[in-house]
Amino acid sequence: MSTQIAIRTGTIYPPVQVRSVPSIPNLACDGAIDAEALDQTMQLMGATMVYSRNSEIFGENEPADYLYKVVSGCARTYKILSDRRRQIGGFYLPGDIFGLEFADEHTLSAEAIADTKVLVIKRRALNALAGRDASVSRQLFALSNRELRQMQKRVLLLIKSAQERVASFLLEMAERMSVGNAIELPMSRQDIADYLGLTIETVSRTLTSLECAAAIEVPTSRRIVLRNRSALRRLNG
Amino acid sequence: MSTQIAIRTGTIYPPVQVRSVPSIPNLACDGAIDAEALDQTMQLMGATMVYSRNSEIFGENEPADYLYKVVSGCARTYKILSDRRRQIGGFYLPGDIFGLEFADEHTLSAEAIADTKVLVIKRRALNALAGRDASVSRQLFALSNRELRQMQKRVLLLIKSAQERVASFLLEMAERMSVGNAIELPMSRQDIADYLGLTIETVSRTLTSLECAAAIEVPTSRRIVLRNRSALRRLNG
DNA sequence: CGATGCGTTGATAACTTTCAAATTTAGTGG
DNA sequence: CCACTAAATTTGAAAGTTATCAACGCATCG
Question: Most buried of the four, A166, B11, B19, B124, by CB within 10 Å?
């Protein structure tokens, strides 16, 4: 399966773009409004791609020419550090958009966690559209905004204890994908560990201790039921 | 000294701004080009303010109506967590710009670390200008871009050991303000600790051990001389 | 059925924090 | 300018947390 679209090219800034840049600081809408314009565009203009479990979607240092929207499955972005550890940048669930970079090259790699279907759209095309459609550009801005806030949250998370990190993670996932109180985790313990900056053993032990504390249930390793959110929130700080 | 300018007002998005928004992903210039346009503007349009040591420049949740540029001294942004710990968002040295937020309210507070002189400019005015002057808007974008990348670096830093964090910090500061191999730190050990997510004791001990390892010298607590950068870089990962 | 991957558990080591005290530095008033 | 107090920094010892190494259980799959 040839899933690699990106082709390394010289960097070109269409002058049109450059003129219509930011005024970044003032716009703070969070995509709640107009949430459909970008979606529709991607549906219309995007190509559907399928990536099998653990296959690469894009690699670090490749030109960031495309934007990706998860249709089904789940993706992760990550970076391999010099000491061979892996830091996971984020998990992307159906409806989530990733590949939004702030440079012309990806600073992270991306892989499918499970078999994953994504809509792929050329950033160039999207930018051109954004120049004409304010709601699209607003949404692009809101998107990067959201990434930024998530990163801020992550910084705050990483200075906390293992329990707090795991609790935060569960609450985050619950917010994004819970059915009732149950979460069906698409990612492995190793993924979670690399996301939280912990070891797999610590994640496992922490989940066990949360279960003992009656805050959660873990019927199977990939299925977690939140039993006491306020306890988790208390841990969360 | 009444240093508080910000006044809470309703949020207004001038339609002009909204139309000329992003195309964010494609622009990756890093402020190297055109580095003067924004500077000149701030010089011309900005007001000079002086803040004494430890005084507040702005507070969390206040409207983010101004952009600040350090002329002399040093500022820090920070957030107080629910467990009373303080996380420092960043240190701003002469020439650095802060107060750039991605919402209409500050998500961090800011204080002067030493007696500090800053240029203050209304964001509204800057945005209006950015609509007309592409180089200004490019720089604004480059600024937020830089903040973002620093945040990414921070995430990578926070999953590492105390030694690596301190070594990274020293190299970062050296890059930003070294005179030869010497750094004159404007901030306290507590500031450093809160920046790196460590305790003050760990920071102190780590510096001592780096000194023993002949990687640095610490003639006075605020003055640090780098003796072996490659050793620091090795620690840095 | 054995191999393999993933997750859990246990024991120990390494690292960081906490608490306490000593030491140095900075600031203030005489 | 000195002396004195307060604040900042360093150092030590003990406790707490997380990582590492190792073993085990439990599924899945050929």
Answer: A166
